[in-house]
Amino acid sequence: MTHRPEGIPAPALTDDDLTRELRHLHRTRHDAFLTGSEDAFETHTARMLELEQEYLRRFPDAASPDPLRTRAGRRRAAGV
Questions:
Q1: Tens of pLDDT along 31-52?
Q2: How far is it, in rounded angstroms, from Cα 29 to Cα 45?
Q3: What are the CA-CA distances from residue 62 to residues 3, 19, 37, 39, 52 (Å)?
Q4: pTM of the model
Q5: What's the rounded Cα separation, in Å, for the pair 67 and 59?
Q6: Nearest-angstrom CA–CA distance, 15 and 59
Q7: Calpha distance 80→68 (Å, rounded)
Q8: Cys bridge to 44: 8, 32, 35, 79, which one at CB 3.0-4.6 A?
Q9: Residue 33: CB partners within 8 Å, gap ≥ 6?
Q10: Cα 10 from chain centroid?
């Protein structure tokens, strides 16, 4: 079996392609974890991290945590 390349480098993807690829990897994560080989899971993990890091570099505000999902935000909401 021939080893396939890991895909287009994340910085070379358009914003739309990056988003589409990242969504696809997130959808297939569970299957790769449960039924993939060790090599397949490692490749999936490396690609996912590459795309996530590029996404955060391009869109730092898009991945900001919801204030209600942080301890400080929940305390403020509760009036504490």
A1: 999 999 999 999 999 999 999 9
A2: 8
A3: 34, 12, 32, 31, 12
A4: 0.76
A5: 18
A6: 10
A7: 13
A8: 32
A9: 41
A10: 12
Query: Residues 39, 46, 41, CA angle at the centre, nearest 5°?
Result: 30
Q: Is 69 exposed, middle or buried (0-12, 13-18, 19+ CB in 10 A)?
A: exposed
Helix (H) or strand (E) holding 42: helix 38-58
Return contacts of 53-56, CB within 8 angstroms, 24+ apart.
53/10, 54/10, 54/11, 54/13, 54/18, 55/18, 55/19, 55/22
Burial of 38 from C-beta contacts in 10 A (0-12 / 13-18 / 19+): exposed
The 10s digit of each residue's pLDDT in 65-79 is 888 888 888 888 888
Q: Is the dihedral of CA 17, 24, 48, 4 positive or negative?
A: negative
